[in-house]
Batch of 3 targets.
Target 1
Amino acid sequence: MSSDVTPKIGPTPDSEKQSLKDRINNAVRTQKRPTVTVLSSLLSIEDDLGYIPKEAISIVAEYNNSTINEVWGVASFYPNFRFDPPSANTVEVCWGPSCHLVGANDVIKSVLDELGLDGEGDTEDKGVTFKFNTCLGACPQAPVMSINHRMYGKISAKQAKSYVSALRENTKGSHS
Ligand code: FES
């Protein structure tokens, strides 16, 4: 498994800044939601880029005839928005009701243990971002986890640990 998402460190070159702005503009202008709002615009950007870059705030404000303060207000109100690029890989474990009933807690514990984390966040080497999910949409397959958006169902804590371990092994060095 690999990923083309590389964490950005240091100043962003002008060409990268422009393409980031293009992606933000595109995400805002091609939203499929029936009602376009500041929140829907931020969600579209987060869906596309995995985070809300600072450049997005003024673009969203202008597009929605809003102010920068209002957009920041909405963005900072929702804890699910992140403001720095995600790690090279994303692991999500569902802790919704169906998964909770059949062992999600053990899966979560073993994944966190493997990642050296005690909750949502990034591993120290920026190799993996860990997130909880309230429903990955595959309840009959509970408990469910996803790795880089690929779903794994009916997993045991042991399997989850070995998937995460394999992911880290396969991507070692690709994000540093
Ligand atoms: S509750 Fe876990 S996939 Fe729906």
Target 2
Amino acid sequence: MKLFFKITLTLLILIVFGAAVALAEHEGLAKYKYFGCASCHSVKSAGIEITDPSAKNDSLDLSTVGKDHNKEWLSNYLKKKEEVNGKTHPKVFMGTKEEREVISDWLSTLK
Ligand code: HEC
């Protein structure tokens, strides 16, 4: 019986912990907002609208960017070490390596 309670308790802890992780905002999403990426890119799939009212169009939506690029590519692109149509990303990334990686990690999940 003791073992039964131990197993039940362990399972309960795992369920509560899992729910907390699932509910918490991905750190990459928080950083995405913090670094103002949304002034040029909406992420409609995550409910993020473009924030710059003067943006003429919304062709840079990143809703499915993870389909085309993996985390490593995204991180390198933000560092201007990869190109799209022969051009590096127009915006210089001002954060740390860790911040760049956490954003890239999140973006790579958008499929
Ligand atoms: C000043 C506007 C601007 C800001 C701010 C900006 N970007 Fe961009 N981004 C662009 C433009 C323009 C392109 C398209 C470049 C091209 O096609 O050559 C682009 C392209 C991209 C792409 C490639 C998309 C694809 O499908 O190839 C990714 C990924 C990206 N940006 C992520 C980010 C992230 C993350 C941030 C915030 C750290 C950010 N951008 C901030 C203007 C911006």
Target 3
Amino acid sequence: MTRCSSTQHTLIAYATRAGSTREIAHFMGNIFIQHGKPVEVLEVKAVKHLEQYDALLLGTNIRAGQVMPEILRFAQHNAAWMPRLPKAYFVVCGTLRTDTPDTRAIVEAYLEPLVRISPPLSKGLFAGRIDPQTMDLPWRLILKNITEGSMTPGDFRRWDLIRLWTESVVTRLEQGAALMSIANQMAAV
Ligand SMILES: Cc1cc2nc3c(=O)[nH]c(=O)nc-3n(C[C@H](O)[C@H](O)[C@H](O)COP(=O)(O)O)c2cc1C
């Protein structure tokens, strides 16, 4: 867990199966810290409450064209609270190993179930990693023969692009939090 102490902070919550999304979430957390922004990075299953956070970054890997069920459950469970938070979503997958308008459209559609619950300020679409060593024998044998498409083994993460997007999100979430605070104050008058 990455944590920078303060009373106000952003939550980065993620789902992963083989660890590449976790590494990306912590990389993002360190960028928040470099910008002096308090942040907590947690696997989504470990998040107890959203009320203590000012902004949310939600990320998931993809399997069989789906976001992870625990991310969806989290969003459904917090559906009433999510609209109150400035938020961004990111997805980590194999499809974006080839980055074209068509693959971007496919990957953006992966996020639709979350977007329907509460639309984000920004969406980060990233290529991930398929490492046969993290999988059991049947998968290792299958992956040995795959050389193209979303299941191609390799580490396709573009840390430069992840950094650029995260830096833009630091600013957008901060602006979003400021706007929401003003709106809440006006509603209370
Ligand atoms: C069994 C399996 C199914 C996958 N299905 C898809 C898929 O449907 N679409 C896609 O773009 N990537 C797919 N991928 C690629 C993963 O999303 C990618 O490897 C991601 O980086 C994994 O994240 P993780 O290491 O956090 O688990 C799949 C990977 C595996 C192992």
